[in-house]
Amino acid sequence: MTKHASSKPLNAHEKRERIKTVRHRIEGAHDYDTWRALAQELDQLERNEAWKVNPVSPYFQHGMIEQRLTRLQAWRKSKDWGQIIFSLREGLHRNLGNLSNVELYKHTHFGTKRLIDDYITEVNNQLNYLCDHDIAELAGTEKLLFFKNTGHSFGRSALLLSGGANMGMFHMGVLKALFEQKLLPRVISGSSAGSIMGSLVCSRIDSELPGVFSGEALDLHVWRRFDLGDIWRNKALMDPAQLEAFLRKNIGEYTFEEAYRRSRRIMNITVSPTDPHHQPRLLNYLTTPHLTLWSAVMASCAVPGLFPPVTLMSKDGSGEYRPYMPSVQWVDGSLKSDLPTRRLAELYNVNHHIVSQTNPHVVPFIADQTRQAGWISFLGEVVKSEVQHRSKQVLNLSAYGLGQGLLKAGARLGSSGGRAAVLRRRDHPSALPPDSLCASGG
């Protein structure tokens, strides 16, 4: 139970202290349900509920949404399925009435306008009813065609997992929370650290994922310390043989197509040829079905100076491994395109992105779209770009601990710390208590 136990109203001092306590507990929440309860309590303490209940807002067409909700409810009560089908087919758009305006999701800690919640719930319930029941107005193949066309019009979501060296292990918490809430998108894209975490999930069926999130299903014994002699021999800070052994042991020998057929999730990995005149490529079960998933992840981890470039490997119908484009070597494609949104839209009709960004050099430098242009702004962009570049160099060097840190993420999922622990600790995130990765990311 997370709500304040006292029955009497809090005075101003008690309320400030309670708000401070709840904020601290939110930072250390171990699971989504705990976080949600705390966020809802914080909304009550800060009197955000009044904003939720009031449908009026300059950020969306509340009158239109309210009218559509009223009509849908009336048609449902009168069982006018023809009107419902027509309305849903015509008006089921992700940003209908500006519902996706980010300003609507900044005001509170949990949720948004009650009107928006009610409208989405009504639409969802009606779609489920149409799917589960025999409707004369939607018989046979017409039902399949209705959902196919409506789904295509609405678009789909994708989860994008950035790189981020050791910090990339926190993607596991995001994956865990989305999976447990049955919200994990089928389309997942990852680069570098993100490609490892995404591939661990996209190569397994649902019943195997709890073991991945707890670490019990991961084999970490292939890792050993990397000495200076290894660095000299490989001309890189990390041992590619250890990375390959880890990936093949924990992801398996699946091709992109085999992994998709097994998990029904679509893994996407961006890689680049070492030739600077070639563009990055997005690898997945459509573009490279016979390419092995583990070799694509190795290429995505091949940051110059850390892991050497790799030759991608494919698997033919007889199970034999063959080099994919033998004369070409590949490296991390996120150096040119960290989040391949345009290509995902072309291939999978993705128009909504959930981004897990763990690159610490990105967060302080996200452009403020509300600032006006000018020479001072231009100068700031120049300085920001240089600091960003230097920060990324430092981040890449920090990946020296990748073998002992990042790839052991699965075995270190869980108890306390939260996002605040990352800021408090000076050691690697891999030193966080067990389960803190899933707690922080989730």
**What integer is the average pLDDT?**
81
Structural category: alpha/beta
How many beta-strand runs?
Answer: 8
Q: How far do the termini sit from each other?
A: 19 Å
Largest sheet: 6 strands, mixed
Could you explain how this protein is built, in words?
The protein is α/β, with parallel strands linked by helices. Helix content is 45%, strand content 8%. Helix 12 runs antiparallel to helix 14. It is globular and about 65 Å long. Mean pLDDT is 81; it is low at 367-373 and 386-442.
Concise overview:
The chain is of the alpha/beta class and 442 residues long. The protein contains 18 helices and 8 strands.
Keywords:
six-stranded mixed sheet, 18 helices, 45% helix, two-stranded antiparallel ribbon, alpha/beta, single chain, 8 strands, 442 residues
Layout: helices, strands, pairs:
Blueprint lengths: L11 H16 L4 H14 L3 H5 L8 H16 L3 H11 L22 H19 L8 H14 L1 E6 L9 H10 L6 E4 L2 H10 L6 H6 L13 H7 L5 H11 L5 H8 L2 E8 L7 E3 L9 H9 L11 E3 L5 E3 L6 E3 L8 H8 L1 E7 L18 H24 L19 H7 L11 H6 L1
Parallel strand pairs: 1-2, 1-8, 2-3
Antiparallel strand pairs: 3-4, 3-7, 5-6
Helix pairs in contact: 1-2, 4-6, 9-14, 12-14
